[in-house]
Amino acid sequence: DQQVKQNSPSLSVQEGRISILNCDYTNSMFDYFLWYKKYPAEGPTFLISISSIKDKNEDGRFTVFLNKSAKHLSLHIVPSQPGDSAVYFCAAKAAGNKLTFGGGTRVLVKP
Amino acid sequence: DTGVSQDPRHKITKRGQNVTFRCDPISEHNRLYWYRQTLGQGPEFLTYFQNEAQLEKSRLLSDRFSAERPKGSFSTLEIQRTEQGDSAMYLCASSLRQGQDTQYFGPGTRLTVL
Hints:
The structure holds 2 protein chains of 2 kinds.
Chain A (H helix, E strand, L loop, with lengths): L3 E2 L4 E5 L4 E7 L6 E7 L6 E7 L4 E4 L2 E6 L4 E6 L8 E8 L6 E2 L3 E6 L1
Parallel strand pairs in A: 2-11
Antiparallel strand pairs in A: 1-3, 3-8, 4-5, 4-9, 6-7, 7-8, 9-10, 9-11
Chain B lengths: L4 E3 L2 E4 L5 E6 L6 E7 L6 E7 L2 E5 L7 E4 L6 E5 L8 E8 L8 E2 L3 E5 L1
Parallel strand pairs in B: 2-11
Antiparallel strand pairs in B: 1-3, 3-8, 4-5, 4-9, 5-6, 7-8, 9-10, 9-11
């Protein structure tokens, strides 16, 4: 039972353009959502998060949007840079402490 | 702040051998987590400590797996009688019990069971 899904396994975008990554979830008890970036042979690096009481959170080039009614969140990266090329994971937390991760989206930013 | 560290970074072992991994969390963090990641998948939760107490264990953590955090600082994850299906990246994360409790990950230990 995959409670967090990232339906796009990969995304290719031109440098300077917007990258939009999507994530869907099924568990209505999730109340905190996070995005992590992962380079090969490294652990996930925290990027940005959002609480379920908000619908938007922005940090520099990264913005996360949450649509609770649709159980959907997205990460926007503007402008995309070659260094953003990595695998991005969406994660969600309910009342406990464990994170439930999606399967990841590989982003390639072309110069 | 030196971040979460894990040792070793890579481990190759033969089936049936025991292996032990170590995780050192960010110094002021009192919560510590272990996750496992296989190729093409997101990390999956294994277990969680608050200080030295192991508060939650996943069904993924079979009897061959044991984790400890004896003094509430570093943690060890031991796998006994390794199987080829244990081959994965083992990730450790830590957090400070404050606010939304964001988890910060270490670089992981890549285990290959031959």
